[in-house]
Design a protein that fits this description.
Elements: E1 9-10, E2 23-25, E3 31-32, E4 35-36, H1 43-47, E5 61-67, E6 70-76, E7 81-84, H2 96-106, E8 109-110, H3 112-120, E9 133-134, E10 147-153, H4 169-178, E11 190-197, E12 203-210, E13 223-230, H5 256-271, E14 279-280, H6 289-293
Parallel strand pairs: 1-2, 8-9
Antiparallel strand pairs: 2-11, 3-4, 5-6, 6-7, 10-13, 10-14, 11-12, 12-13
């Protein structure tokens, strides 16, 4: 469908990582011998042999303990205990775009307006106002890749739904005895990219992928999910998360051009659907760009 009807070029996507216009390929996930690989299999195994390294699992860091600008440790597990630093110790926050700012804010480092909200909700512990560090850059510019699910149906599709709690016995046995079969690899079957060029010459990147099963109300044996993302060049950014329960408003997705770009991408894909036997189940394939946006 994508190669034949939509004129995408099938590529080795790792070897052609800069090709993002009408590019199609099969993802090579980080698996070894039928098991998920990555840093846990590589770096961690050598790190565990070092005398100055200790992995402490089952630990939830609540906040950094500090005196002024100097960190002295971290509160863990609901601040019920503390791991203290040695005099020349350092703390590295590596919780990603959401959790690292959260730790800084709950340590009294961030936008005063957010810190005020957190303090009122007893999220700063006993840290007094005089110890707050004003840094409005913390949490600013938050960016997410908005994801749209399109459920694709065709009589020829053979969907496969991973059920890790109680998998089919034959698939379970094949994996446990030979590290083979459906559970020896991730479910995504392909990825594809395109670009949207705006009137002012700026470019937005968009990406799609096909999964192996449907979603929510569309989980029959002949439906799979097409995931549609906005990637590079999108304008939606946010900030001001206070990390308290509640709605996020427009924190993640607040620029009309981004919605238009994603809708344009979907419309292009739908234009290539005739004669493929594929039918979107949760969005009318005749929808215009403006209808998709709305």
């Amino acid at each position: 469908w994508l190669v034949g009807n939509a004129n995408y070029t099938e590529l080795n996507i790792n070897a052609n990582s800069r090709r993002k216009t009408k590019a199609f390929g099969h993802p090579v996930y980080d698996y070894q011998n039928g098991q998920r690989s990555g840093p846990v299999i590589t770096y961690l195994q050598t790190a565990l042999t070092r005398p100055n390294f200790r992995l402490q699992s089952g630990t939830w860091v609540q906040r950094i303990v500090r005196t002024g600008n100097n960190a002295t440790g971290v509160n863990i597990n609901g601040a019920t205990s503390t791991i203290s630093l040695k005099p020349n110790g350092r703390i590295i926050l590596s919780g990603g775009a959401v959790k690292s700012p959260e730790l800084l804010m709950k340590s009294g480092i961030g936008d005063p307006a957010v810190l005020t909200t957190l303090s009122a909700a007893n999220q700063l512990g006993s840290l007094p106002f005089s110890q707050w560090i004003n840094n409005t850059a913390v949490g600013a510019g938050l960016f997410d890749n908005p994801n749209t699910f399109i459920e694709m149906f065709a009589p020829t599709i053979q969907a496969y739904n991973y059920v890790h709690e109680n998998p089919p016995q034959a698939d379970q046995d094949l994996y446990l005895t030979k590290r083979a079969g459906n559970y020896a690899f991730a479910g995504g079957s392909c990825s594809f990219w395109d670009t949207i060029i705006h009137a002012d010459g700026t470019v937005a990147g968009v990406q799609g992928g096909l999964g192996n099963a449907g979603y929510q109300d569309y989980t029959n044996a002949m439906t799979v999910t097409m995931n549609i993302y906005g990637t590079s060049g999108l304008e939606s950014t946010g900030g001001g998360l206070d990390y308290l329960p509640g709605t996020s408003g427009d924190v993640y997705y607040n620029n009309a051009q981004d919605a238009l770009d994603i809708a344009t991408f979907i419309r292009r894909l739908f234009d290539a659907l005739p004669d493929t036997g594929l039918t979107p189940s949760n969005l009318d394939p005749a929808s215009t760009v403006s209808q998709i946006v709305s």
